[in-house]
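User: Hello! My lab partner asked me to get a predicted holo structure for this protein. The small molecule is zinc ion, SMILES included with the sequence. Please write out the structure tokens.
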Amino acid sequence: MKTTLPSQSIDLSPEEIARYSRHLILPQVGLDGQKKLASARILLVGMGGLGSPASLYLTAAGVGTLGLAEMDRVEVHNLQRQIVHDTATVGKSKIESARARLQSLNPHVKLDEHSEGVTFDNALEVFSKYDLILDGSDNFPTRYLVNDAAFFAGKPLIYGSIFQFEGQVSLFDTKAGGSCYRCLFPHMPEEGAVPNCEEAGVFGALCGVVGSLQAMEAIKFLLGIGESLKNRLLVIESLAMQFRTLRLKKEKACPLCGENPSILKFEKENYEFSCRIDPSGPPQKEEMRFPVEVGVEEARRWLDSEKPPYLLDIRESYEAAVCQIKGSAFVPMGEIPNSLDALPKDRPILVYCHHGQRSLRITQFLRFKGFDTATSMAGGIQAWAEKLEPDMARY
Ligand SMILES: [Zn+2]
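Assistant: Hello! Below are the structure tokens for the protein in complex with zinc ion.
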């Protein structure tokens, strides 16, 4: 069974008829279909790598209302893939930047702004205003939050994600009997267990492919044409240049949409990485459960305590030249194996890098070498700068 929106009695102006003429002459779209698009409301979660191409194509296609949910500002390193923004908008909010570009592309599209992004507090209310949600988020807490909010709000969700050279796309339409993200990946990984795009790198043009496929799925869904990705996962391997479609099914054991769900309502703690807080400085060596990772707030408490840890910057010299936390020792990652004798064995070692991924690997290496109290600073100097030292230079 296909879900289609009811035909609407919106009239298109002569300018719009001309603008959409290449759609109008497709029998599967036609005037009726174009009017459906003109009355549709789509929410884009994230105006980054996926939201950029998706928003451009949905705007060009004449979708009636696009909701833009994003809280970040444009940074220069976004421009490698986030093509709705440009050099002149670096420093502006991504919503403001995207609005200018999208409005100039197609002034007939109404843009609704959600400048707090999608959060636990607003998700259900925001979702209720839209026909379809398109997920362009780049982190696990938001992805799980979006999935669950779409389930509880009964809204179809176009999922897309990127990891390095691989992309995935699907349609999660639980109300129509389809699977959800948790049918694939039941629980959120531990913080730091899986690198995000910033840490792992992302192949820019692949964002164009995945975001455009999401837009295409959204348009097909609104028109009720073709075969959707409901209960299918499209996997794109860009290096091998292979597109594979895997069958998905609604999992009986899914904690959200399965037969005996453990997630019975929308609850905040399901979307937060746990954060260990200890006001008394770092645990000392004799303590058994010395954490492998700490957040930046706790790291600072440790550094400010009476027995501060040895603070170790393992980035490259060109990175350390941009910014460094005061009091750091500096040993680039590649030199660590030959520098073990220089590291203290009688005090905890707090390791950091740019985003917390390299430091986690070095922490694991150090522990293997007998430094039992090596700890990685989760989120790296980027999180430190964002949360604790906003004036610090970033890169
Ligand atoms: Zn499910």
